[in-house]
Design brief:
Two copies of one chain form a homodimer. By secondary structure, chain A is of the alpha/beta class. In chain A, 36% of the residues lie in helices and 20% in strands. The first copy, chain A, is built from ten helices and ten strands. In chain A, the strands form two sheets. In chain A, strands 3-2-1-4-5 form a five-stranded mixed β-sheet, sandwiched between helices. In chain A, strands 8-7-6-9-10 form a five-stranded mixed β-sheet, with helices on both faces. In chain A, helix 2 links the parallel strand 4 and strand 5.
Chain lengths: 307, 307
Amino acid sequence: MQSLSNNNVIAALEAGGTKFNCALLDTELNLIVQAAFETTTPAHTLAAVRDFFRETVAAHNTQLIAMGIASFGPIDLMAHSPTYGYITTTPKPDWSNTDICGYFARELNVPITFDTDVNGAAWGEKVAGAAHDLSDFIYVTVGTGIGAGIVVNHQLVHGIRHPEVGHMLMPRDPLLDSYTGCCPFHVGCLEGLASGKSIESRWGVPGKLLRADHPAWQLETQYLAQMCANLTQLLAPQKIILGGGVMEQPQLLQMIREHFLVCLNGYGPAAVLERTEDYIVKTHLNGMAAILGIAELALSQLDQEGL
Amino acid sequence: MQSLSNNNVIAALEAGGTKFNCALLDTELNLIVQAAFETTTPAHTLAAVRDFFRETVAAHNTQLIAMGIASFGPIDLMAHSPTYGYITTTPKPDWSNTDICGYFARELNVPITFDTDVNGAAWGEKVAGAAHDLSDFIYVTVGTGIGAGIVVNHQLVHGIRHPEVGHMLMPRDPLLDSYTGCCPFHVGCLEGLASGKSIESRWGVPGKLLRADHPAWQLETQYLAQMCANLTQLLAPQKIILGGGVMEQPQLLQMIREHFLVCLNGYGPAAVLERTEDYIVKTHLNGMAAILGIAELALSQLDQEGL
């Protein structure tokens, strides 16, 4: 069992739009060393990540047995696709059609496990966070964009792409909210109406500069509560975990729970109606969810393949 | 292997709000005999179903080894709940708190497999219909109500209840549609806006009496296309299969496909955008989906339990 030998390590990468978080972990998922690199161009950022892993693996006298990459998207996860392992049609300058998996497979010569940033984070919640041992739950990040990782029957949902919860079309009362959203594709999708980008576009300043009693938070509450209501009706998860920069507003969580109950209006699973404070929660993994999740997924894939 | 002995049979029941469809099938899921009984009171309807199965099992000289029940809801599917196997808080007169599984377990003395009518139908599509061999798909019935069975990674989604897609809150433009829906719980949920009941409530006549060019079908198209768009963004299934009385309107399917593409506006998996006619389809199982699905689930459960 190579994976149990005590100098084996896993490289975990959370590839985000702002920075690339890198961590080297042992096979018990203990953190050995961590670093972050700014997301500039693929040539620069990928090389910095490669050099970090090469150097730290050598410096700690370890052997790299696998790498997990949890990436911003959209990404291609279809095993037989010619662009499997690519960041595909992202509007982010320079990053469209970047073969991120191929790069690290070649440069570090290890098997790669690839998934979305939010799937990585969702799995991290299962491994070490608020979803420990749960079979059915949803992790939603509300940051610059909105995305979700969904676990059903103890497995991540992929389908023929990966969930894009941010593009769910939402109820919106034009008399109460004349703003139609900042999404270039959709009028009135969740990300267009409730992402950090939309808050800034709607009010002219970033959310972190708005007072706690600013009307922005009522609208934000309404859309995120509707989102939680729809996810509950569609999938009846055991828990919804919220993360991302927008959720750092301390007043928001309780406001969402209360409006969520207004949205359900008594129609929902008893556990959800009665213990909403255990049902809609915030992540408490301090930004480590995706790193832990994708490392565990990489390790599991090794085990499944008998390496 | 008792289940392969050639006189073993499965009882399959699709418990609907209008009628209870019953079928006796062999262990290859071939139909032996079928009947339907009107849904009146539990005492009358359940006894009629019991008598049918007792008599046909005896008449065909067979041995009943399992029963599958696919029921209208809401139902309790939580294994450790005191009301597991019950039809719970249905507004249907007399049927609230009906222990449908307990009744047949006692009266027919067989193991019971229990699920929603739409989960049964979804599984039937996998066994014998449009979802043959697919890992990820959704079956939606648009009839008196709206419900869905969802399959992810080859398994039915249950969560802590079962999907209630009909109660998803929908975008609605009050300038184009002033009707807020017929749902007693929600303003603007899918079932309230687009079920057969809502069509009748909105226009004063049942949908089947409305002309093919009646404006009702534009609204119906809009809401069902939005539903398909949201299901696509959330779960990226391989196929969405539509059934139910409302979908018998022949003009509706193509209208939904076209408006669905308008809703996505180019943002979706390539296979979905390019081959929408293979992606959004109608059931072609002629009302047998739930019977076949729940029979297969009953048989699988026997196999899993090694009986």
